[in-house]
Amino acid sequence: MKTNFSAKRRCAALITDPSNGSDLMNQSRNALRGIITPERLKTTGCIALLIALACATHAVFLPQFFGMPFDPFTYYGGDATAQMVGAVSFLERSILDGNLFWSWEYGLGGDLYEQFSYYYSTSPFFYLMFFVKLLFGAAGGSFESAQEWRLIGSIVKQVLCMSLMFALMRQEGKRRTWAVLAAATYGCSAWYIDNSFAFDFMTDAMIWLPAIVMTFNVLKRNWHAPENAKRTFSWIPLCLVMALCLANNFYFAYISLFFCIVFALIFSYEPLAAAKSRKDALATWAKRIAALAGIVVVALGLAAVAFFPSVLAFLGADRAQVTPTFSFFAPLEFFGIVPEALFFKGGSYFATDSQTYAFPLFILLALLIDYRKAPSMVRRKSLLAAIMIAAWMIPLVSSAMNGFSYPSNRWCYLVVFAVAYAIPDWLDAIVAQKTAKPAAIIGIAAFVALCWFTHDLRVEAASSVVDYSFADLGKSDALMLLLQLAAIALLFVAARDGLRAQTRRLMGPSIAASLLAALLIAMPFGPYSLASGYRDSSGAETIGAAGSDPSADLQELFEGDGQTCEAYALLSDKTDDHRAFFRSIDEETVTDGRDELGHLARYENRSWLMGTYPVSVYNSLIGKDVSQWLKLDQHVSSTSLSASHYRGFDHRLFVENAWGVQYKFNTRANEASNLYGYRVAETDPLIYENEYALGIDLWYDSCLPQSAADAWTYAHKDAALMQTAVLDDETIAGNSTARALADGAALDDTVHAIEVTPDTASFDNCTLENEVFENGALTQTTVTAGENARISIALPEQTEPGEYLLEFTAVNAEGTSWTMVANGEEFWTGSSSHRWKYPTEEYVLCFPAGTTTLQTLDLELEAGTYQISNLRAEFDSYRNLDAWTAARNACNLENLTVDGGYVRGTAHPDSAGILALSIPYSDNWTCTVNGEAYETFAVNGVFTGIALEPGAYEIELRYTNKAFVLSAGISLATALALTAWAGVALARRRKKNYAA
Fold it and tell me: Quick one: angle between helices 278-315 and 962-995, nearest 10?
């Protein structure tokens, strides 16, 4: 209010006496000088430099999005295309529809918030970008739009990473030049760049480390401060930043927490000189560690709403992997390529896990620092960097950081931070102690030359032992290394006595310029990659590179041709009709596109971008119960045996029909690949409608216990589950309706075994040892397969429609990856040590019968030795399929509404039965019948069942993520408790000050 009155007086004075205007202008100039100071201008210049660096490191991706003359459309392919791009638009569309929880548009329905927490659903950066995109009308956009905004988001996050690192260094009193170098080393690291345009959710983790250290420094400065309000609340910033870190992504919170523990142990210790005794120092240290642990507990309480559901999602995901095999210590060959990993460029380690750091060579001078004379902070930061680099060299650590799975370098942003954090202190110590002597410079140059000339030899030796790949050294590498050697030489000059002040001022910027130029040359997507035309580095893929129109290529790869788009639009329109329910299969899950595109286009989840209800999904966090039911209980075989592949419904009778697959979307051929009831839709020749699809509701008038179903073969399962419900024995025993339905249940006999005997089976180009044929099956044998090996089973003449099932267990004796071809369809199985091999050796392959002439079932094996057991063939007739379908539709839900996590309908059964809904069974679904709570149970191992007597019923099911509700309660309670504590603390402080 005083300011306003003062402004009014000045205005009044100016009106009554214009001469006062000059005084007012002078006051304004002085105020402006107070705002725009040289210090602030320099800081602004540094931030502008960091923005320029961030744009430069994305040089490959920039032109295509901003109308510059660069025709090919370059993006980060592989898993990024299959998972991340679709997931972003999918989540955004769900939010726009008012739904962040249950969705039918992936898998067989699932919890978006929980199961997508591994990616984006708990990330504050995702929501920030969502709201920005919302302002521009880009939320939930197409593939190209999603990639454009991903690029913008990546640059913004990189600038934020570097700015926070810069601010941290300035907070600790480091000169701007050194702070810029630390920020660039951190934010422009190969780890960030390698993930920026692909697994962009991973780069969120880099933002929190400098913020955590900054808030830790605030707390640390108040440890010795007198008791005051500032000291009382000094732990709050650290608590809030830790809460955001834990909420952002639990996987990287786990990794960052490891860093925080190491950091706290190093930087919380009180030097002995500042303490009364060693005992007193240790006691103070322990108290501080306990206080920091308490801060983490409070932060975990605040972050519970995001952290706990995501942990449950991880524990409930089907991410089965083989037992990792690795040594505690890295092999000697690994240490031979350490120079390439630390200082050179072009290295990679499995997919996008960066194995190159391109650290500046001058950090070798840190080995020459006399740490006995160095300040305490130099020693502590050096210890932190040494611990992280040493941990990087131990495979066990990389396994522990990946959930004790295969060793992964996803955690190595900690290594980048530890080195970048120490760089300003090392530079000050190098200049102060003059360790950049001519002998040291010559030694580093000789080391570089030795590494250069032995590069090929060492990389070749390592490639046979470790899963690393390094590019050949070239002109860019030589220039990068020469620039770094020049920077080291400038460090020598900067340490000399007697330099003129102007020359000394130029030394820092000159060193920084040399190192930043070297850093940009090392970037895989930077200016050098753009200038050299090397656009396909490190997983980046280019569309339109063969002279074709990139827009047309993009249309074909990610949205399809015009006819395909129309088909998708037709299906998408049906999602708005809550009176209907359908699921679709996009037959084209993996394709190599056109040959001239020169890459594999992975877009199993493209249906997410098109708005259909797909059941073919590639995703890392699909619910374990449903996935295992498909892969282990029903053994629906996918063309790739992997934990992440969630597809392969094909023409398995029960699985496809009972899950309500009403439409099969087929872009590869003009006919559907199965036989039962698919017919071309009148509206579009690419859509096949399944007249036998059972929708969301199946009515069973009988049931059988699981103990009886366990003896069925897979062909019997397919036929039986179309006829009767299977319930747990305990469920039948505890439910009177189910007990009555279990009496006298009978099944049609539509399954016939096909004899597998020496007379009906032939083994071409392969030999059998210790073979045993029993009960019309090959129960065991060792098969040695040569080139073009083939097992053929003769089939009897068959005129009625149905399906053949070929069932067997096969183990590759060598433990290597292998491929088999069954009646023209290829199936791949990873090696015994393959990290994503699914833990099964059993295969159930299905082939149509009755409409095409099929005389044999042919199984072609790669050359090798296989242990094969329980090889059998069966025929499952469709002759009663019409009757089964009619019986399952005898009591459909009327007035059906399916809207996300809300399902409503009415039922009027004439007799007792079980209504089985094709909703994955979960206690998060609550059911009411005629307004009263009603018990549900699992049907057929995975459906949601309701037992009903004759009558009229209004049935409602609602999905509520109970873990989210409980976790939200914890977060709210923690926030209220923290607010109450702060209020009480402030009141006490005011009372104390008033009394004083």
Answer: 150
The tokens describing 416, both together, are 């980048």
The CA-CA-CA angle for residues 968, 974, 976, to 5°, reads 100
| pLDDT confidence tier of residue 540, bands split at 50, 70 and 90 | low
Name 619's Cβ contacts closer than 8 Å, sequence gap at least 6. Answer: 83, 106, 107, 115, 605, 644, 646
State both tokens at 689: 């409608």
Question: DSSP readout, 377-404?
Answer: HHHHHHHHHHHHHHHHT-HHHHHHTTTS
Q: Does residue 547 register a pLDDT over 70?
A: no
**Beta strands in 81-151, from DSSP E residues, in sequence order:** 102-103, 110-111
Position 855 confidence tier, pLDDT thresholds 50, 70, 90: confident
Nearest to 378 by CA among 455, 339, 433: 433
Sign of CA dihedral 161, 164, 170, 172: negative
Q: What stretches of 434-474 show up as alpha helix (H) in DSSP?
A: 438-463
Q: What is the DSSP letter of 688?
A: E
Q: Residue 346 carries which side chain, given as an amino acid letter?
A: G
Tell me how far apart the alpha carbons of residues 312 and 297 are, in angstroms, rounded to a whole number.
Answer: 18
Q: What is the CA radius of gyration of the chain?
A: 33
pLDDT at 602: 65
Question: Is the pLDDT higher at 562 or at 106?
Answer: 106
Residue 558 structure tokens: 């990610």
Determine the average pLDDT of the residues in 285-294.
92
Beta bridge partners of 859: 791, 822
Domain ranges of the chain: 2-36, 219-320+962-996, 324-376+387-525, 560-616+635-695, 698-748+883-959, 751-877
* Cβ neighbours of residue 57 closer than 8 Å, sequence gap 6 or more: 158, 188, 193, 196, 520, 523, 525, 526
In this prediction, residues 563-568 reach a mean pLDDT of 74
Average pLDDT over residues 450-466: 84
Give the three-state DSSP class for 718: helix
Q: State the residue for tokens 């950049």.
A: 436
Determine the residue type at 291. A
C-alpha distance from residue 179 to each of 171, 176, 183, 507, 620 (Å):
10, 5, 6, 15, 39
**More confident of the two residues 287 and 223:** 287
- The average pLDDT across 718-727 equals 92
Question: What confidence tens digit (pLDDT) does each residue in 632-649 have?
Answer: 888 888 778 877 777 667
Round to whole Å and give the CA distance between 486 and 546. Answer: 41
Residue with the two structure tokens 């952290």: 307
Domain 751-877: state its class.
mainly beta
Q: Which structure tokens are listed for 748?
A: 């049609």
Lowest mean pLDDT among 106-110, 213-217, 733-737: 106-110
CB atoms within 10 A of CB 872: 21
Distances (CA, A) of 864 to 772, 796, 819, 871: 20, 30, 11, 18
Q: CA-to-CA distance for 252 and 258, rounded, in angstroms?
A: 10
Task: Give the number of other Cβ atoms within 10 Å of residue 882's Cβ.
Answer: 12
Residue 449: per-residue pLDDT = 93
Q: Confirm if 717 and 634 have CB atoms less than 8 A apart.
A: yes
How far apart CA 573 and CA 222 sit, in angstroms, is 61
Q: Read off the pLDDT of each residue in 846-873 and give the average, rounded to a whole number.
A: 87
First to last CA, the chain: 28
Cα–Cα distance for residue pair 111/593, rounded to 1 Å: 32
Rounded mean pLDDT of the chain? 84
Residues 24, 10 contacting (CB under 8 angstroms): yes
Q: Answer whether residue 491 shows pLDDT above 70.
A: yes
Helix (H), strand (E) at residue 4: helix 2-16
d(CA 883, CA 454): 74
- Could you read off the pLDDT of 12-51 as tens digits, one per residue? 554 455 555 566 566 666 665 666 777 778 888 889 999 9
Q: What pTM was estimated for this model as a whole?
A: 0.88
825 bridge partner residues: 822
